[in-house]
Amino acid sequence: MATVNEKMTAIADDIREKTGGTDTLTLDDMAINIQGVYDSGRVDGYTEGYSEGETSGIETGRATENRAWWDIVTANNAKTYYEYGFSLADFNLIGGFNPPYKITPLVCGNMFRDTKGVERITDEMLDTSKSESVGYMFLRCVDLKSIETIDCSTAGSKQTFLFNGCTSLETIGRFILKEGALMSSYDIFSGCNALKNITFVGTINSSVSFQWSPLLTTESIENIISVLSDNASGQVLTFNKAIKQTYYNAHSSEYANADEAWDALCDTKPNWTISLV
């Protein structure tokens, strides 16, 4: 009998915990409250399930609507002419730039000019290897933080103001250059104050400036220097003065001071004028 009473007491305690009550419960009270707890649980479970279903339905609907939008603006990804294609658009309205397929434009000048909500571009989203020009492509695309690859192997020297005004840009995974082509604008990276990481593939044959980018990593600095043409003449490479110390910090065990380290690096490209501003 004691065991039964202990079990009944435990059940009563559970009911009081669920209902928030403190009164002593009779057997009749317990039966009523058990039914109440059951009904409450059934209603709560239904509400939770309905809420989950509603959320899932909304997300599915949005995904379908998003895909339909992309199919329209890209002509089911058959479109190749993107001059001013997304200029002035605000991708925040559709949850960011995330095309469901790779866009491969032949013409993409001004494509993302003054565009908002484009934070990252991967190789699965964009392929510029066949583009005839990338001039002004990301002009003032202020939300852009990273791009995996910008391929100028077809565009050649048509890169005017390519990343000009990209104030949030931190990483350019690969900047592929056409062999023998010139950098068409000294101000390709003007305003790129946040730029840290950049890797060039190919050869830089003409003047270029990174004076707006004090955060460049040592790896980026060394890459830029390494791809300067050994045959160029009268060309100027400009860095922000802060990167001299960055370079020295990575090589302090090899050189007595920052000036010595910087001079040694510049001496590897004697045909270039490498300046700090």
Strand order of the largest sheet: 1-2-3-4
- Radius of gyration over alpha carbons? 31 Å
**Residues in helices, as a percent range:** 25-40%
Largest sheet: 4 strands, parallel
The overall strand count is 7
- Specify the overall morphology: flat
- Count of discrete alpha- or pi-helical segments spanning 4 or more residues: 5
Given as residue ranges, the uncertain stretches (5+ residues, pLDDT < 50) are none
Into which percentage range does the β-strand content fall? 5-15%
- First-last Cα distance: 92 Å
Mean pLDDT: 87
Order of helices and strands: HHEEEEEHEHHE
Structural summary, described in words:
The chain is α/β, with parallel strands linked by helices and 277 residues long. It has two domains: 59 residues; 202 residues. Helices cover 33% and strands 12% of the residues. It has five helices and seven strands. The strands form two sheets. The chain has a four-stranded parallel beta sheet. Strands 5-6-7 form a three-stranded parallel beta sheet. Strand 5, helix 3 and strand 6 form a beta-alpha-beta unit. The longest helix is centred in the N-terminal third of the chain and has 47 residues. The radius of gyration is 31 Å and the shape is flat.
